């Protein structure tokens, strides 16, 4: 979570106890939780306002689609799944001398 390992998390907890003290640490943690919840609510509200402002023609618009990697995957690579791409049949047999290979209309 957040790229913090066990050792780093333990160091952060010890620093929090030293900085805020064991008696104020629950109050500070509760304030941090409330601030994080309020920030998440504000972000969701802004996202909803943006979707409402765009109108019904953008009802299926997702902000995550603006991520370049997801954009390329959605608009370019998904089309490859629709193609009928088959592996050519492997026939390792060798034609005898003078015999012509079979006619393939797709190869011409």
UniProtKB/TrEMBL annotation:
Keyword Transmembrane helix: yes
Keyword Membrane: yes
InterPro entries hit by this protein: TatA/B/E
Subcellular locations according to the entry: Membrane
Assigned keywords, A-Z: Membrane, Protein transport, Translocation, Transmembrane, Transmembrane helix, Transport
Region feature (Disordered): 88-108
Membrane topology note: Single-pass membrane protein
Name of this chain's protein: Sec-independent protein translocase protein TatB
Lineage, top ranks: Bacteria, Bacillati, Actinomycetota, Actinomycetes, Streptosporangiales
């Amino acid at each position: 979570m957040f790229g913090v390992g066990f050792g780093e998390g333990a160091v952060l907890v010890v620093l929090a106890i030293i900085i805020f003290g064991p008696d104020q640490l629950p109050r500070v943690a509760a304030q941090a939780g409330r601030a994080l919840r309020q920030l998440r609510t504000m972000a969701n509200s802004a996202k909803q306002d943006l979707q409402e402002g765009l109108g019904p023609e953008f009802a299926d618009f997702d902000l995550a689609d603006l991520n370049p990697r997801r954009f390329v995957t959605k608009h370019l690579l998904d089309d490859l799944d629709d193609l009928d791409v088959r592996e050519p049949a492997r026939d390792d047999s060798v034609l005898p001398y003078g015999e012509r290979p079979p006619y393939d209309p797709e190869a011409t």
